[in-house]
Design brief:
With about 140 residues, this protein is mainly α. It has 5 helices and 2 strands, in the order H-E-E-H-H-H-H. The protein has helices at about 5-25, 50-55, 60-70, 75-85, 105-115, and strands at about 30-35, 40-45. It has a two-stranded antiparallel ribbon. Helix 2 (about 50-55) packs antiparallel against helix 3 (about 60-70). The radius of gyration is 21 Å and the shape is elongated. The relative contact order is 0.13.
Length: about 140
């Protein structure tokens, strides 16, 4: 292998390592919920394993959004504990605290979680050139 290719592969490996480390970081945002008098709610990005859990939660996309929002928000998890203790939510159904949001709010929050998770971002990939491969 010529030296130029070795250098390119080394650069690619270095960039790959940097991006892997960046993806391991937990990205967090605080949302101000205007419909709740400006209350703040923290959300975070989800790992690949957590995203899989969310997608497998239900066959209903709306329920998956509710679960994702609950899963990604320590604020909602703590509030749900209080509501369960008060008898306002059923144990095991804590994610239903997200019923307080309108569909528009839920969609916005779910999309923000996906962005923080690295899912709904711009890919930053373009096709440079294509070559035709001939079968031998």
């Amino acid at each position: 292998m010529d030296q130029d290719k070795v250098i390119i592969f080394e650069q690619f490996a270095r960039k790959a390592k940097e991006r892997i480390e960046e993806r391991k970081k937990i990205h967090v945002e605080t949302l101000e919920i205007e419909s709740m008098g400006g209350m703040s709610m923290e959300i975070r990005g989800l790992s690949d394993a957590e995203l899989n859990e969310v997608y497998e939660f239900s066959e209903d996309a709306i329920e998956n959004d509710k679960y994702a929002i609950f899963f990604a928000s320590s604020t909602l998890q703590e509030a749900a504990k209080i509501m369960v203790a008060d008898g306002d939510l059923q144990p095991g159904k804590e994610y239903q605290i997200t019923d307080m949001f309108t569909q528009t709010e839920r969609r916005f929050i779910a999309n923000r979680i996906l962005v923080l998770s690295g899912v709904n971002s711009e890919a930053g990939i373009k096709i440079k050139e294509t070559d035709e491969v001939k079968n031998s």
